[in-house]
Amino acid sequence: MVETIFAEVELKVPIEQIWKAQVADGPNCMPKIFPAFIESIETLEGDGGAGSVRRINLGSAVPYARYVKEHVDVLNDETHIFTYTVIEGGGLGEIFDYYKATISFKPGADENTTIGRWSLDYSLIGEHPGLPAQLKRRNVDVFKTVEAYLLSGASAQTEKKLHHI
């Protein structure tokens, strides 16, 4: 049986900034923000957009899996919606029978705030008490960590360094 959970959080950064860091330029930004969790993100098939297949090589902080292979179902820069389905790795076949997540952003109360939303359609293999709540917390933490990274100016410093190489 497929179940759904979601989490929503207000972020104190403009929508385009968080979208770029977490999704549009995620293959470059996310390994910098989460080096212990994400070693790299590579596109195996397609151009990185909808229909593509990506492999996320996981870091040492993820002991249960070395990688996750995902199919990009939706990647829309205008509506700020990213949906992917895990097709291999990351606990698929061991913990999950099905895993499809959506990350979306909508404008907040003003131009410097954004509402981040994460939802997951999933089916578990066996009993895993507390796992849905843990996944919700973990994904709120991802949003807040990317927000903190952007607010710290680290992304601007990283971009400056890249331009000087």
Describe this structure in words.
The chain has 165 residues and is of the alpha+beta class. The protein has one domain: 2-Layer Sandwich (Alpha-D-Glucose-1,6-Bisphosphate, Chain A, domain 4), CATH 3.30.530. 30% of the residues lie in helices and 39% in strands. Strands 1-7-6-5-4-3-2 form a seven-stranded antiparallel sheet, covered by helices on one side. Strand 2 (38-45) and strand 3 form a beta hairpin. The chain is globular.
Could you outline the blueprint of secondary structure elements for this entry?
Blueprint: E1 3-11, H1 15-24, H2 26-33, E2 38-45, E3 53-58, E4 67-76, E5 81-89, E6 96-107, E7 114-124, H3 131-151, H4 154-163
Antiparallel strand pairs: 1-7, 2-3, 3-4, 4-5, 5-6, 6-7
Helix pairs in contact: 1-2, 1-3
Short description:
With 165 residues, this protein is an alpha+beta fold. The chain has helices at residues 15-24, 26-33, 131-151, 154-163; strands at 3-11, 38-45, 53-58, 67-76, 81-89, 96-107, 114-124.
